[in-house]
Amino acid sequence: MPPLLYESIFDEADREIFNYLTRHAFGRYEDALAEAARIEKEKNIPMTVEAFKPIHFGWGEYKLPVGTTFIMLQDNVRFYPVGIFSTDKDFTTIKWWEGAKVNYLFDWITFFVPDTKEKSATMTPQPTFKTSFSFEVVSTVAKAKVDAWILGYVVLPETMREMKVTR
Predict the structure, then answer these.
(1) pTM above 0.85?
(2) Which helix (H) or strand (E) holds 83?
């Protein structure tokens, strides 16, 4: 199934539909809460859910590196990406893989909308990562980073709040 993209230009009726879709985010927040409760019950570790931030991957800014990034999550950590926020007209795609580019999953394709300064999208399909994964940020121009961010949730032990969750 190709990704769905909900752009940030609309008339008022479309804005209401967009607000409904983003509020529900296809159940990912509820999924993250359920996974936190499951781990807490199974392993007796207090768990929490946080919005994905640069500190979680050991980064210092809300920008994505161009090229392939391999992420290995610590034990009892889950990553739930749900969408993209971007102000970069050269950013075109995020490609997702399980492991170190072992099993290709799908692409999230973004489109530049010249009438707006930003684009925000809720994407499908929405993966859940429990161990390791890779993503590749594609840009039409050679540069180190794009001015874009992955919107999502991180399930982690309460003792790891606001900390790096990768190995």
Answers:
(1) no
(2) strand 78-86
